[in-house]
Structures are given as C-alpha cells and as structure tokens.
Amino acid sequence: MKKTASDYSHINGWGIDADPLDVPNYPIKKRNENDNKGMVWERPAQQPALVEVLHSNERPGLTAVFGTPNPPTGLSGQLRRFAFRYSESTWTHWLALLVADRINMMEGIGEDLKNGHIPDLIAEHGLKSELKFNKIGLAKKVLTGAAVITVAVLLMKSRSRDDD
Amino acid sequence: MLAMNYRGPYRVRADRNKPMPEIEHSSDAIVRVTRSCICGSDLHLYHGLVPDTRIGTTFGHEFIGVVEEVGDAVQNLKVGDSVLVPFNIACGKCVFCQQGLYGNCHESNPQATAVGGIFGYSHTAGGFDGGQAEYVRVPYADFGPTLIPDDMDHDDAVLLTDVVPTGYQAAEMGGIKPGDTVVIFGAGPIGIMAAKSAWLFGAGRVIVIDHIEYRLEFVKQYAQCEAYNFRSLEDPVLFIKKTTDWIGADVCIDAVGCEAAGDALQTITGRKLMLQAGSATALHWAINSVKKGGIVSIVGVYGPTGNLIPIGNVVNKGITIRANQASVKRLLPRLIEHVQAGRLDPKGIITHRIPMEEVGDAYHIFSAKLDNCIKTVLIPPSARK
C-alpha cells in the first residue's frame, strides 16, 4: 500500500470498498456455461411486432422486447430503412440516421401545422428561463442576431444595386 | 397524459395529449412516475447529437414511481409498489446479463448491438419512451425495478437509478488502490459522484477538473476534494504531471463525454461540424494525464462513430482503459447500504425541482447551466398533490 498523505477520518466510509474481494459487486467477469456458445440462453417470450421496428443487421432478428413509439414514416423513415441496410460499423449507417433526424424535425413542424398546432418556440426553447436568469446573455444574443441580419440585408441591397 | 416531447435540437415541450403506455409484453409493468431527473446525457439528445432520435420521443431514464399495472408474467411486483427503475433495460437471462453486465443486455435493443436498451434514449438505445412523463412502460419488470426501502428518501432513490451507480462504477472501474491519486474530468453530477465514490475505494487524493466555477466550488465542499478550473491552468495535463511529482495520476476518469469544452479543434470537429462522435477533450486529457501503466475509466457518453484520441499514447504508456454503461442492478445493494449508512448523500446534489409542465425551461436551465444548476428533478402533477 502507498503511504497515504494524511488522516481521512473526516471522510465517512474512506476505504470501505478498497478490497475488491470484500466487495461482491466488483466487476470481475463471471464465467458461465453459456460462454463462447453464441445466442444459446433461454430467450424471454417475444413481444409481437405490431409496428415496423428496424433492427441492426448485426443481429438475426428483433430482441425479445423493444420500443414501439414513433415507427419510421415519411422521407425520414425511408432514409432510416436505408441506414439499417448497413452495419453499425459504417459511417453510412449513422450519417443517414442523423440526416433522417433533421428531416424528421421538419416533418414534425409540418405535422404540427397540419394539426393546427403552432409550436410555441419561446416555451420549447426555454426562453422564459433565459430571460429570468441570463438577461445580459439574452440581450447579447438578440443584438448579435440583429446585427448579423442587418449586415446581411445591407449586403443584399448593395448587391442588387450593383446589378442594376 | 402529460409527457415531455422532443421536437428537434434545443426544442422540447410538455405534451398533454401523449397516449397512455400499454402493456405490450407479458413481462411489462406500467409505472406512474413520481420523480424524474434530467441527466447530463439527456443533453446529448437535446442537442441533437445522438443518431436516430425521433421527433415525438419522450426522454427520461432516471425515474421512480408507483406500479399501476403488471403483465401476466410478472411475479415480483404488485400494483402499488414504490419502485426505482434502473436506466438499463435488462432481461437478466442473456449471456451478458448472466455476467452482471446489465448495461449490455442482448434482449432489449434491436436497433444496435453496441448498447442495451435504455429508457427514453433514442431508437439507437431501443426506441423506448422514457420517464419524463406521468406514466411509463417498464419492460422486464420482474428483473429491473427495485422496491424503494421504506426508510429511503425518494429524492435519494431517484438518483440511484443512474447518477450514483454511474459515478460509483467510474471509481470501481478505476481499480483504485489505497493512496492512489484519482483525477476526475468533469464536475457535473456524475463527476461529483465519482469523486465522492473514489474515497470509498481508498483514494489518497481526489482532484476534479472542470471550467464551471460554481460546480468546482460545489464539488470541493460536497466531495471534500481538490478542484481546479482548467481555464486558469495553462495546460491541465502539465498541471497533473507537476502535482503528481511528474509521474501522472494513478487513475483518470472521464465523466464528461462528447460535449467537452477546452480544445478548439475538438469542439469544432466534434460539436459544431460533427465530423467525429463529439468532442473528446476530456478523454484526450485523461489518457495524457494518467501515469504509465495507469487506468483510464470512461463513463462519459460518446456517439457511435469515432473520436480523435491519442491511441498511440495508450499503447506506449501501457494504459488500461475500462468503460461501460453502469450496471445499475448489480450495484444497487451496495449503494443502498452506502446511502442508508450516510456514506453517500445523493439528494445533496439536487438544485432544481421543476414542474413537468415547464420541461422546456428545465432543459434550458440545465443545458445553459443557469442559476447554478447541478441536478434537476421534474415533478409530475400527480406527485405534487
């Protein structure tokens, strides 16, 4: 044991879990009879797939349970189906999913509007708390945004004048 | 029912019309949520960094509640039981669960083989809705959910679903020997719990590195450790070398993950351009700060693609890297003992209790680190009566 720097009596429980053999939880790999045999355990009952559930091509089928909310739909869904043709080891798989997520966000806005729901962006972004706890930061962001928009508008105007 | 509803990066709302969850498998239970936390790793979802995070998803993998309904095959739980629900969804039967690797269950996530199912953590983690809602479906109810001891404060219980086990396992995986110097990168809830846990394994020095001043002050008091702001250190790796007599730390813990600050190249390529699976600054520093033959323990969450880290130094220094999602169910008996004995005080890190209806503000406060926020608990309406 190393020489410890000082007295640790002020720390409740110091060293209580220091000996791994005294701690039954210590993460030593437990060997069992199913090691090295593949998927040979007694599988739980299979959840019925009542919606489309994509699965990694690195496994033979669905797991015994899975989540069913938000099955793939629309353009984002098509992209997700494409992504799952590739393994988890490929960039194609993950980049396609990320692009699908961004498309899905636009689909979400469209769906909201179709249902007559106008997203409350102030509440969704938590801007009330920004106003409450970070007034100066919020003012800086607003001013920066306004400055960027002003510059962009001026640039566009001067370009259109040049074209004339 | 009322539930958090993800609408895109930095946009979440309280949805009052989410359909109630149903029993979909004979081993399911439906739990009425009484407390649900926002985890630092929820922010990776909130920031749009986790692939296959679908619009309409309800986040939340740290929750407790009361059993409302059970499937036909459930034997260990009954309606009315108060339970804490580990964030891992684990069958308890597969070859990995049989080894105690409950974060790596092979029967709970069809979408990815690299991770087991996690409540409310995208379709990459199984596509389950999470507990930031009034009700939640809990699969494998006979295995995961654990009865909350009668004498346990429910604020402590909700933090035993993830934060405490993850911080504890970070220290455990470090293989800390009495007298070791342990450096923890990140003073968020997980880093704070890792610091606290490192002492239980007999650490001689515990050093926490971050750049958020109020969190450094907090961890210094709460975990009785040293805490340094890397913005005021010219080079955190050099600082660790100097303060360990030019040897390096015995154990380094990455409790930050993919949104680390502190290195422009990592931030631009990882967080802004997403050319790598997040910014790996903390891991980079951990590898370079640990001594030759030392151990780096990773509990920070990274994306599934790849990251820029000095793997050559891992080889040349003979470093052991240990990493995993916490195996909550394995650790619970010991951690409940620690809480009951007063060695761990989980609820001490809760700074904000926010009604679930204000989930947009709750996420923003935590994400932007406003109002000295460390840990946020969402309280559904039924739990406020």
Write up what this structure looks like:
The complex is a heterodimer of chains A (164) and B (385). Chain A is 45% helix and 0% strand. Chain A is mainly alpha-helical and 164 residues long. Chain A has a domain at 120-164. The model of chain A has no long low-confidence stretch (mean pLDDT 89). Helices cover 26% and strands 22% of the residues of chain B. Chain B is built from eleven helices and 17 strands. Chain B has helices at residues 42-46, 154-159, 163-173, 189-200, 213-222, 236-243, 264-272, 281-289, 311-317, 328-340, 359-367; strands at residues 3-8, 11-15, 29-38, 63-70, 82-85, 88-89, 117-118, 135-138, 146-147, 181-185, 205-210, 226-229, 249-254, 290-298, 320-323, 352-355, 376-379. In chain B, the strands form four sheets. In chain B, strands 3, 4, 5, 8, 9, 16 and 17 form a seven-stranded mixed beta sheet that branches. In chain B, strands 12-11-10-13-14-15 form a six-stranded parallel beta sheet, with helices on both faces. In chain B, α3 crosses α4 (189-200). The longest helix of chain B is centred in the last third of the chain and has 13 residues, at 328-340. Chain B is globular and about 60 Å long.
